[in-house]
Amino acid sequence: MDRLHDPARHDFASDNYAGVHPEILAALAAANDGHVAGYGADPYTEHLQDVLRGHFGADATAYPVFNGTGANVVALQTMLPRWGAVICAETAHINTDENAAPERVGGIKLLTVPTPDGKLTPELVDRHAHGFGDQHRAQPGVVSITQATELGTVYTPDEILAITTHAHALGLRVHLDGSRLGNAAAGLDLPMRALTTDVGVDVVSLGGTKNGILFGEAVLELTPGSTPGIAFQRKVDMQLASKMRFVSAQLIALYEGDLWLRSARHANAMAQRLRAGVEAVPGVRVTQATDANAVFAALPPGVADALREVRRFYDWNRATGEVRWMCAFDTTEADVDAFVAAVASAAARAA
């Protein structure tokens, strides 16, 4: 066993904790032969365009980047003027987990809205969609939604369409943070374009890392002209890979076939198994819908700390005892069942 980690240990802290899917590693190895042009002028990045157009439509254009934070910052910067602002949920990843990168690096004002389930609505958008033309106020220019949300919930196509229709009527563009778009599509049993292109989303930050690749995401322009200057902005933000073939080759391996769907469906199924197990434990209360690969639950005092001796996971709200458990493409039924047993044991001791 490697002295740095136990390969048999699968935690529930984040799908980022998982390793790299073997099919992705094989794709990286295959892409490693010979010389190809750098900075995206390679056959892998060219082929990636065709792969993603198959999912998102003929107008889609992909710009591979290093990571999800970079994808969000690059996308939002190019969608907005320098004085623009983004309307998003208070729990949005761009607001809570990116160390103010949109503000610090992008210079973007975030106009946040509290939501009970992580999802925006046209009515919630209207809380900040005002003050147009007022030079004293940052000008709303983009509505950003997350699919699946940070609370593990999923927007239906109709919910997204209502937001995009309302936003476009106000002159706003719509960005979708799709770090777990695959899990949302798998949970709804819909193609990814049904949650993006077909319902009016302009730009997607397309995920990969949370669904089994080593590194890399992509900014996906769906509405032509919605990310002006993105090729330059990607370079300015240090998100232009010189050896871009290794990002593109992974995204091709993930999205050309059904690997993205197989991995997402498995992670979702493990989350459903986990939810069913902990719901039967006295004192444990599941707090959100389990639409994708996350389970949120409130635990009795002391239980979370006891469980962390078994598996890593994150507190969501220490004041209320709410925690988040994430499942990944490599989470097994045995992992889930062992953890449910640990939850039951710790809850019984705390009773």
UniProtKB/TrEMBL annotation:
- Similarity-based family: Belongs to the threonine aldolase family.
Necessary cofactors: pyridoxal 5'-phosphate
One GO molecular function term of this record is:
lyase activity
Identify the keywords attached in UniProt to this record, alphabetized. Pyridoxal phosphate
Q: Which domain of life is it from?
A: Bacteria
Question: PANTHER family, alphabetically?
Answer: L-THREONINE ALDOLASE-RELATED, LOW SPECIFICITY L-THREONINE ALDOLASE
Q: What is this protein called?
A: Threonine aldolase
Record domain Aromatic amino acid beta-eliminating lyase/threonine aldolase: where: 11-297
Task: Give GO BP annotations, semicolon-separated.
Answer: amino acid metabolic process
